[in-house]
Write a structure and sequence with these properties.
Keywords: Hydrolase. One of its GO terms (molecular function) is hydrolase activity. With about 325 residues, this protein is of the alpha/beta class. The protein has three domains: about 55 residues, Single alpha-helices involved in coiled-coils or other helix-helix interfaces (Up-down Bundle), CATH 1.20.5; about 220 residues, P-loop containing nucleotide triphosphate hydrolases (Rossmann fold, 3-Layer(aba) Sandwich); about 45 residues, no CATH class. It is built from 14 helices and seven strands. The radius of gyration is 22 Å and the shape is globular. The protein binds guanosine-5'-triphosphate (GTP) and magnesium ion. The site of guanosine-5'-triphosphate has 17 residues, from helix 4.
Length: about 325
């Protein structure tokens, strides 16, 4: 038997910055047990009721993506230390599409964030494993809200740029950063134009040593490429910067550009609008997921579907009639 705390005990602990209770609450969010899930919702509600009454300092949510090996983890470690040294409280989360299969995690390899994971101002939480991307996204959003309530004013969300997860992360952050390598062709980096279009900034990483000149050339190339993109409609023009996570070069400029974006979008109202749209999209995605889940959880539904689909295929049942029959 686990020793159960009340939702208010959790909420008060989290709001006071208690890491241990924060971690336990996130574990509830990630749990599949119905009683855990119910308690998680109560904790979130209790936390949000209090933060709505007395909002904490505004948070900044940053998504970071790039192909495997581009240097995301190393970059987060360097940027993270830079931010905590400025007094920020930093939470690092991950949306990891690969953890579904392997049960592993993007951030499971802690050796790559050794220093940051020891930093008392940083909190690193790996992606929950064994879930659909939609499920991971939902839990990451809830986790982010708890982290913010616990006083983390900057949330970094890492995702590997190999599929749908970039779009999902873009839909939960204020600023979306795409890390790129110099020298590797766009095809090689698997970078579809679509991802570049989502980015609020491109950063050419590993701009150090023999790589420096190539990084500067890539910067110019990508700047030219971005000029051909349609304007974002916010008055913000995504810049292309170079940086090195090893030497720390360029991290300062990069952070200043992120703050510029924050100032601009806050003043124009786009920041607030983006968050409101994200909230609504979250709700709609969750509603869709829940409806799907309920539908397929009905007993005997698979068998009925097989029969009905055979009739539809044969043309003996119209799709419209089939849907009416299924949903009764
Ligand atoms: N020279 C140089 N090497 C770097 C830099 N950043 C990362 N690396 C190296 O690049 C390799 C990959 O770095 P990671 O940070 O693990 O890359 P990642 O994008 O997190 O990789 P995945 O988690 O596999 O997607 C490591 O060997 C790093 O040491 C940099 O700024 N300069
Ligand atoms: Mg990594």
């Amino acid at each position: 038997m686990r020793n159960r705390l009340t939702p208010d005990q959790y909420a008060n602990g989290i709001l006071a910055g208690d890491r241990f209770l924060l971690s336990r609450a996130i574990t509830l969010i990630e749990s599949r047990r119905p009683d855990d899930q119910q308690l998680a919702q109560q904790v979130l509600t209790a936390v949000l009721t209090q933060t709505n009454n007395s909002p904490a300092k505004p948070s900044l949510r940053i998504g970071i993506t790039g192909v495997p090996g581009v240097g995301k983890s190393t970059f987060i470690e360097t940027l993270g230390k830079y931010l905590t040294s400025q007094g920020h409280q930093l939470a690092v989360l991950a949306v990891d599409p690969t953890s579904q299969r392997s049960g592993g995690s993007l951030l499971g390899d802690k050796t790559r964030m050794e220093t940051l994971s020891l930093d008392p101002k940083a909190y690193i939480r790996p992606s929950p494993a064994g879930e659909s991307l939609g499920g991971v996204a939902h839990r990451t959003r809830e986790t982010m809200l708890l982290c913010e309530a616990a006083g983390f004013d900057i949330v970094l969300i890492e995702t590997v740029g190999v599929g749908q997860s970039e779009t999902v992360v873009h839909g939960m952050v204020d600023f979306f950063l795409l890390l790129m390598l110099a020298g590797a062709g766009d095809e090689l980096q698997g970078m579809k134009r679509g991802i570049m279009e989502l980015a609020d900034m491109l950063a050419i990483t590993k701009a150090d040593g023999v790589n420096t000149a190539a990084a500067q050339r890539a910067q110019v190339d990508y700047q030219n490429a971005l000029h051909l993109f349609p304007p974002t409609g916010t008055g913000w023009f995504p810049p292309v910067l170079t940086c090195s996570a090893l030497t720390g070069t360029g991290i300062d400029d990069l952070w200043r550009a992120i703050l510029d974006h924050q100032r601009l979008t806050t003043a124009s109202g786009h920041h607030k609008q983006r968050r409101q749209e994200q909230q609504l999209a979250w709700f709609r995605a969750l509603l869709q997921q829940t409806l799907d889940h309920r539908f397929y959880a009905q007993s005997g539904i698979r068998e009925r579907l097989t029969t009905i689909e055979a009739q539809v295929r044969a043309g003996t049942l119209l799709p419209g009639s089939a849907v009416r029959e299924l949903l009764g």
